[in-house]
TrEMBL record:
Residues 1-15 have a biased composition (Polar residues). Residues 411-423 have a biased composition (Gly residues). It comes from Variovorax boronicumulans. Gene3D superfamilies: Histone H3 K4-specific methyltransferase SET7/9 N-terminal domain. Residues 1-21, 327-353, 408-442 are annotated as: Disordered. Residues 327-348 have a biased composition (Basic and acidic residues). The lineage of its organism: Bacteria, Pseudomonadati, Pseudomonadota, Betaproteobacteria, Burkholderiales. This is MORN repeat-containing protein.
Length: 533
């Protein structure tokens, strides 16, 4: 009698991707049949099978009892089963997986002559993994009326295809995979199961090596997908169960968007379009079934639509409009703030100007003259000229007014330096009225008498005495400049000599006075001892 048996699977780490090796014919004597029937549950285990099991799992004490050892040997001899066993994180979980695997295998595969033969099948691996305690939500997904028929049909097809041919290779992120099922020309074609070293199990319909048709996928994260694939991508009707108890049932597009219902573990749900795993357009319902909100979403947040409270009251939502209104309000706020700042600066400038003008009315001639000098030095010639005009308008008869007039008309004979300040020698030069200014005879006589009547006290301070001398000499210079009457027979040369002498006296008195000043004060010509003092 001749029995055909499939050759040993390729090593799980092999990069070979193709049809499994040839079938071998083995001659078995008839008198050995009873022995084979009794030992059919024990498969030949490759010498390196145990070495390929995760050492932390292979050394578990929980796996050393006789029943578990036999099951472990069966699993270790099967690449796909070994992949799933290796991802069990604890010895207890590994033992639980092997016990579920034994239950899934059951009596085994029935043979024509030898009864039942114990063997690991792709369906047994899938069933053992699905029945873990951690996948109760995934089992519930498969029991849904809208999912169960497709899941059962896929399972029936896989069981009908059996182990079939074997392909293996390398996947993404350093994983390896093994395929069991129907093939053509070295590629997956028809029904089959792919098991990855990460623990993921995919089973369904393939075409030319790509997932094409109905699939049932167990993800290592604890999630499950039952639905359609087109060219290796989820496209069409499907249901996705999450480990946390949520489900997503609907239709997938080739862009990854899903039109359907996303139900959370607490019973609340979203109905509509989801993009990148977040609501995009639809309705949100509470766990009691009442509508909570509806409309268009932006990155999972309601953007345009309405919110409905538990009393049924609706509140319109329009985030783009609100953002635009907020932007306009912010722009208006900034505009008003800018205008307010400009107004504040204008008012501040007006106040400063008012204070400046007011200060001019409280200054004496010397302070005005010094202020004009300071502004000229700062380059503010407009204000300097305003101070000068104030000096001449308020104190037209003061000697410094005449000096200022000459500075403004450029007739000071070098009385000012580059910065607008006066030099000691130049001050006396400028201490007379502009040439051509005539005074009445009465004014000339009054100026003469003021000089005659002024007497400097012997105990006077240097400031008082020198400013009084400056006043007296300045008055004489103003009289000369105004062509006041002189004694008969006085020649122009004598008048010129008198002017020069008085200018020298003025400069000497000013220098002596300024030498004892502090705090930036400048001496000015004023009468400290004349009539009325």
């Amino acid at each position: 009698m001749t029995i055909k048996t499939t050759a040993q699977e390729p090593n799980a780490t092999s990069n070979r991707r193709g049809r499994h090796g040839p079938l071998h014919a083995i001659q078995i004597p008839t008198h050995f049949l009873s022995v084979l029937v009794l030992s059919a549950c024990v498969l030949a285990v490759p010498a390196d099978a145990r070495a390929q099991v995760n050492p932390e799992i292979a050394n578990c004490a929980e796996l050393k009892d006789e029943a578990t050892v036999t099951q472990a040997d069966l699993c270790a001899a099967h690449v796909g089963c070994r992949f799933v066993l290796n991802v069990q994180k604890t010895c207890a979980r590994a033992k639980s997986y092997l016990e579920r695997l034994q239950a899934a295998i059951g009596e085994g595969t029935r043979t024509l002559l030898f009864g039942y033969r114990k063997e690991v099948t792709p369906d047994a691996i899938f069933t053992a993994e699905l029945n873990s305690e951690e996948r109760s939500n995934e089992r519930a997904l498969g029991a849904r009326p809208d999912v169960q028929p497709r899941a059962q049909d896929i399972g029936n097809r896989v069981r009908d295809a059996g182990t079939g041919d074997t392909l293996s290779g390398n996947g993404k992120n350093g994983t390896t995979w093994v395929y069991y099922g129907q093939t053509r020309d070295g590629q997956e074609e028809g029904t089959g199961t792919t098991i990855f070293s990460s623990g993921e199990i995919q089973r369904g319909q393939y075409r030319q090596g790509e997932r094409q048709g109905a699939f049932d996928v167990l993800h290592p994260t604890g999630d499950r997908f039952v639905g359609e694939y087109v060219n290796g991508k989820r496209v069409g009707a499907g249901a996705y169960g999450f480990k946390n108890g949520a489900t997503l049932v609907g239709r997938w597009t080739d862009t990854g968007a899903v039109q359907g219902t996303f139900t959370r573990a607490d019973g609340s749900r979203f109905e509509g379009l989801r993009v990148d795993g977040k609501p995009a357009q639809g309705r949100e319902y509470r766990a009691d079934g009442s509508l909570a909100e509806e409309g268009r979403y932006d990155k999972g947040v309601l953007s345009v639509g309405a919110r409905i409270d538990t009393e049924g009251n609706r509140t319109d939502v329009n985030l783009p409009r609100d953002r635009e209104a907020a932007a306009r309000a912010e722009a208006e706020k900034n505009r008003l703030a800018a205008e307010a700042e400009q107004q504040r600066k204008r008012e501040q400038a007006a106040l400063a100007e008012q204070q400046f003008r007011t200060s001019l009315q409280t200054m004496n001639p010397g302070q005005l003259f010094a202020r004009a000098d300071e502004l000229n030095a700062q380059g503010d010639r407009a204000r300097a000229r305003e101070v000068q005009r104030t000096l001449m308008s308020r104190f037209p008869d003061h000697p410094l007014a005449a000096t200022t007039a000459r500075q403004m008309t450029g007739e000071s004979g070098g009385s000012t330096n580059a910065g607008g300040g006066s030099s000691p020698a130049g001050t006396a030069n400028a201490a007379s009225r502009p040439a051509g200014t005539r005074l009445s005879s009465q004014t000339c006589e009054a100026m003469k008498q003021s000089v005659i009547a002024t007497k400097v006290a012997p105990n006077a301070s240097i400031t008082a005495s020198q400013e009084t001398v400056m006043f007296m000499t300045k008055t004489v210079l103003d009289m000369i400049a105004a062509n006041c009457p002189t004694e008969p027979g006085v020649t122009p040369a004598q008048i010129a000599a008198e002017r020069q002498t008085r200018q020298q006296q003025y400069a000497a008195a000013e220098n002596a006075c300024n030498a004892v000043q502090s705090g930036g004060r400048r001496c000015v010509a004023q009468n400290h001892f004349g009539p009325g003092r």
